[in-house]
Specification:
2 copies of one chain form a homodimer. Chain A is built from 8 helices and no strands. By secondary structure, chain A is mainly α. Chain A folds into 2 domains: about 55 residues; about 130 residues, Tetracycline Repressor, domain 2, CATH 1.10.357.10. The structure holds a DNA duplex.
Chain lengths: ~190, ~190
DNA sequence: GATTATGTGGAAGGCGCGTTTCACTTGTCA
DNA sequence: TGACAAGTGAAACGCGCCTTCCACATAATC
């Protein structure tokens, strides 16, 4: 078999081991992130790791989307429960912290085909755009900028901030303050 | 021989051809940017292209730093001739335009060893920090943010802006306006 | 024009990495 | 417990890529 969920208990456990190993490596800068590395970390053979997922791409897709899913859910919750202007600031801080923790290996899976991850990124972009629109209605963000443009800027700036070497909370705050100040409507 | 300037006229001409081909490919998204590709573009054999520079890394180092050098010089000129606050805005627009034109292949030479390019990037960072410090003295940038921090934010944001798919001048202006507004001192 | 140092490039080498093979092991189920 | 399907992993394979070889070409020099 290639991809479907394994039928045997040990195979299912190995699937978890492989996924956990890949996930762990995503947060470790400097590690090669090869099938061999993941397999060794999981205590499995390289063939097993790849086979249970149907390929390296699918394995990393599962690992990355597994990390991203809670972030997207958090955005959904904030959007539903909090005032948009406030939600945006809150969420951005969390998003940056998340990206700072996981951007290190992002250039290693940048060129891979990861449908689940792509879908989540789309969801996230849509949710953030809703936050921006809400913030504009609330008067927390100036309205002379297109929501899609603002969202793109925010997302990219967040990533830029996250790439700062030691992203201390103070530094993140300083960056975010500049960004949000630039977005605020003229008093 | 490996790296030193060739003694024969045809070899010197081929060196130019290889450098020009590499430089041209740096602005072409989607092209593999392999030694083979560069060689075919230059009308030379792969061995020749690599040998005259001493390796692929050295060739791309020469190409990238050749593109970057004028940008650094421009920063130096602006810093010497223009009011810092104005220089910052002017230079950022040009920097973003440059990065937008050349970022496409940057993930293909991101992991390479390129000393000349690294040195120029250091120079650029230092010059930008001087601009920020000057802008702070002029009252164009708020002083409650560390110059190094502001410079890092500006540099990374500029790169983030440049990565926008079709970086139209209007989009760049909108982005820059947000960034500079966020940096302006409170009125 | 002859001689020689210099340069060329197709082919072969070597390396890293993802994937596949296949003899072997191990859960599972009657 | 016995038999079989399911799963494993070391080794082999394939592929892309940079680099090196070496027989051949050619600019420079006398």
């Amino acid at each position: 078999m290639s991809s479907g969920t394994p039928r045997r208990a040990d195979a299912l456990r190995n699937r978890r081991l492989a996924l956990d190993a890949a996930t762990a490596l995503l947060a470790e800068p400097g590690t090669p992130l090869t099938v061999e590395t993941i397999a060794r970390r999981a205590g499995l053979g390289a063939a097993t790791v790849v086979r249970t997922f149907g390929g390296k791409d699918a394995l990393l897709d599962a690992a990355v989307s597994g990390l991203l899913a809670p972030v997207v859910q958090r955005a959904r919750d904030l959007l539903a429960e909090t005032a948009p202007g406030e939600a945006l600031g809150l969420f951005l801080r969390e998003l940056i912290a998340f990206q700072a923790a996981h951007h290190s290996a992002s250039d290693q899976w940048g060129g891979l085909d990861m449908p689940a991850t792509s879908a989540l990124r789309g969801d996230l972009a849509r949710l953030m755009e809703e936050m921006v629109e809400g913030a504009q209605r609330d008067g927390a963000v100036r309205t002379d900028i297109d929501p899609a443009v603002a969202t793109s800027l925010i997302g990219r700036t967040a990533l830029a901030i996250a790439r700062t070497q030691p992203p201390s909370p103070q530094l993140i705050d300083a960056y975010l303050a500049v960004l949000l100040r630039g977005l605020r409507p003229p008093t």
